[in-house]
Amino acid sequence: MSTDRMSTEPLPEVDPRIGELRLAVDALDRQIIALLAERTAVVRELTVFKRDEETVRSPGRVEQVVAKVRGLAADHGMPPGIAEATYRTLITELTGMQMDLLAERRAAAATAAAGPGSGGASGGGAAGEGP
């Protein structure tokens, strides 16, 4: 079916409640994203205290979080599998972010340890500049 044909077909009658509910979903999405951004900021700060891949990945902590969110979902009448799948994806993405931050920190430390005149493209930092 062509795009032109799709755009000229009349829309079926829909219950106005659908529009209201879609607006409610949109408002919830804005709240969820704001909370996920806040959670991401906390995880980013937490990464400062992690020194290696093992502490970033923390499989025991991952399972603890997944069990917690499954329970919270059930308490709120939400299918626990949705919460688990969502959080496993979130954790995977945030773990990747933490690994990138750890790698950047290690690279910066290696550059700093090499000292001035080591051929770095940045030309060094200002006195008192730090993490």
Describe this structure in words.
Helix 4 packs antiparallel against helix 5 (80-114). With 131 residues, the protein is mostly helical. Helices cover 73% and strands 0% of the residues. It has a domain at 20-108: Chorismate Mutase Domain, subunit A. The chain has five helices and no strands. It is elongated and about 70 Å long. The model is unreliable at 123-131 (pLDDT under 50).
Task: Give the key terms.
disordered C terminus, Chorismate Mutase Domain, subunit A, 131 residues, mainly alpha
Overall average residue pLDDT: 88
CATH superfamily membership of the domain at 20-108 = Chorismate mutase
What percentage of amino acids are in beta strands? under 5%
Span between termini? 56 Å
The CATH class label of the domain at 20-108 is: Mainly Alpha
**Which percent range fits the helix content?**
over 70%
| Spans where pLDDT lies below 50 across 5 or more residues | 123-131
State the total count of DSSP E strands.
0
What would you report as the Rg, rounded to the nearest angstrom? 23 Å
What class do helices, strands and sheet pairing give?
mainly alpha
CATH architecture call of the domain at 20-108 = Up-down Bundle
Which fold name corresponds to the CATH topology of the domain at 20-108? Answer: Chorismate Mutase Domain, subunit A
Continuous helix count: 5
Provide the succession of SSEs. Answer: HHHHH
Q: So what's the overall shape?
A: elongated
Major beta sheet summary: none
